[in-house]
User: Fold these one by one.
Assistant:
Number 1:
Amino acid sequence: MSAQKLHIDSYERGWMIFSAFLLVAFAVAVSVAAFGMGIQVPAPEQRVDPRTVATDPNSPWSNPGLREVAPGKYDAYILARAVPLWEYLPKELTVPAGSSVSFYVTSSDVQHGFKIQDTNANFMVLPGQVSKLTVKFDKPGAYNFICTEYCGSGHGIMYGAIIVTP
Ligand code: CUA
């Protein structure tokens, strides 16, 4: 029995090679972004009890705000809530330019969002879960943040700002 050679049209072969090339190119792009540039999908950092997260004295969200953990490095604990009022606690944070800020955001009631203008920070804030993302602020200015998940009639007034001073 003689082996039969599968005939592939040269035009089709060209597209097959191009498709295979695209797969490799995308795999390289994703790897470089994830491991070379540190672009990561926000992952759930830890679990908390949404009923006590704002009141338990051992919970950092009972006293939300900035903590300087090293020179130029901060942890920012932010509570998003719809009750009694749609707001972030705190509504404003001030850091000097060049600071690296790790945001730990959670909700004490419903699902909210957290998006910081002019940065790649944009994630969901779920009750019972802590969302974490680190952002470096090099340029001075006001970086507004807003709620990006519909959370009730006051959704549109949920905003705040990070003030980066020179
Ligand atoms: Cu909170 Cu929309």
Number 2:
Amino acid sequence: MRADRGGSGRVLRFAPLLAMLTLAGRARAHQEPPPAHPVDDDITRTSVVQGTDVLREWRGGVMGTSFQIEAIGKDAAEIDRVIGLALDELRRVEDVFTVWRESELTRLNARAGQGAVPVSSEMALLLGISVECGRVTNGAFDVTYFPLRPLWNYKAEHPTLPSEEQIQAALKFVDYRRIVVDRQNSTVELPSGFSIDLGGIAKGYGVDRAMDILLAQGIHNGLVQAGGDTKALGRKFDKPWQIAIKNPRHSDEVFAVLPVVNQCVQTSGDYERFFEIDGQRYHHIIDPRTGRPSAGCMSATVIGPEATFDDGIATAMCVLGPEAGMAIIEQLDRVEAVLVGMDGRVHLSSGLQKAGLPSEVR
Ligand code: AMP
Ligand code: MG
């Protein structure tokens, strides 16, 4: 099966993964969604010079999480100009797809039940890819899960658990197959009571779009990361880019580092946003079959050519778990995965068997 990626983004040439390193180190903490864009003073900018090449790196916050953009060139001021454009693009994508304040998506949600609603071609594109992710994952990825989210409010000061009746009532409005996307006429129809949250795929889309900006501006070696979603272009000087996978039970440590060239790495996990009651963890990825936080994987890393589609797939892996999830990964063209089951065992797709990754996470 070759998944239709809905024409998103530029497909970078796929390079095989090189040898794998494992190390312990610090990883950056994720942040809660901000009310608006952070001011530019919150961005740290650093340089590394090697010969006549200069690498500029910007870090800060966007899309409710941390971002990192790196680009290599000859002139620091010119590289900064280009990185600024890529960051603007991440912010623009956030503005279109956020549900934390008014956006094109919240306006679409408000019109559920009103027939086919005109949307931007970009909205039709991303919803088309989202529906395709739903189809490929047998509904594990479902952007209509949104009515379930307030029942598992990890942001509440004193979170409570929903009743079975509340879950069943919300589940009546969860089914990605009920979204009608017309890409040609740029319309979307949502049944009455339905609503969409693109939190599981919009970061990947932003990463693809921001990388398009770097490419269009003549950058040949660079990296864009938003939260757990990363796209690497070319190399970091003469070496592959190094992408860390966090230890899902000690998220200030990493359990592996993937060396990548011209690839995307998406990591989802149950450790990013959660609350606990009586020692039980209730997190932000919801199983659309049960209406409850997923119990498939602690962490799922998907490696492939495009951040958008693979972001949705990574979220779905957390729902499906290592066995059912890996069966889907093996069907996808040029996609590999590192899935950490709820018992801490690490499951590797066929292309990563010889990569030297640890077999267990503690
Ligand atoms: P990610 O970090 O890419 O795994 O995305 C997690 C986010 O996806 C959550 O915070 C929700 O906004 C959204 N989400 C949760 N469960 C699902 C699901 N089953 N299908 C699609 N999106 C989901
Ligand atoms: Mg995702």
